[in-house]
Amino acid sequence: MDLQRYVSPDLTHFVGASLPTQKSQFALLKKIVRQGVLQARPRSRRLPSNVFEHAKYVDRKLSSNEAYRGSIVCFCDIPLADLHLHMQKYSRFGIAFRKVFLAEHGVAPVMYIPCSGRPSLLHFYDLKPDARFPTRGISSQAMVFDRFWRYLNNFHKRVESTEDEELVREWRRVVGFLDLSILSYLKFFDHRLHDEDDENYYMEREWRASKSVEFELNDIQRIIIPSAYSRTLRRVFPDYDGEIFFAD
To answer: Which of 38, 72, 120, 204 has the smallest number of CB atoms closer than 10 Å to its CB?
Structure first.
């Protein structure tokens, strides 16, 4: 029994946001269900099917959301009754799975950082004793994280230049974990924007995986479609006995 409505026991992936028509969006949804794979995007066709892209750009600010780029599959943690706003931004065709199922496939929530917010504590202690406390701009979350990003990358260069091979190996394990499981899961946003603004990502409560997610037909908790496609869906997938939610 669910005790609260502001989160959902399911995670939903919407398809076809960049496609021009509902017909093409529905075609993509059918393809995904038939193949049983939510493909991590973007990825090069030249790569093997089990290899996914993950790139780091140390010359970009961490707060830009562009310091990491790679193949991902995204889901939203939004109760069914509140999905209307999300569907307006993306599409009315979606597929949902239980959190317990997706967590076993490596799906995890991102951490949202309000760029213009102020950190509760000053993280760095290299100010002169008589220096004034930083202004709001200097001590914003974006500035603090970007400063950490510079420290991290400079330290990385110093470690890589040493002749201590064991230290280099251990550091690469540390930074590899930070890259894949922590820092690439940070998502910076402007908390002052209206809920309906496309740049207000916080309302999505995003979960993501850095690889494709494979599933069987009976793993699907819910399919979301406009009611006009109901008969076609039932005809194409007669063995599907999960929920169907009409996005009208």
So the answer is: 120
Distances (CA, A) of 18 to 104, 112, 153, 186, 245: 29, 24, 35, 24, 22
CB distance 70 to 184 below 8 Å: yes
Looking at the DSSP bridge assignments, the partners of residue 70 are 54
Give Cα separations from 125 to 122, 129, 131 (angstroms): 8, 10, 11
**pLDDT single digits (tens) 95-150:** 999 999 999 999 999 999 999 888 877 666 565 666 665 554 456 899 889 989 99
Residues in the chain: 248
From the list 173, 123, 170, 178, the residue with the least C-alpha distance to 152 is 178
Task: State how far the Cα of 140 lies from the Cα of 192, in Å rounded to an integer.
Answer: 14
d(CA 66, CA 43): 16
How far apart CA 226 and CA 91 sit, in angstroms, is 10
pTM of the model: 0.85
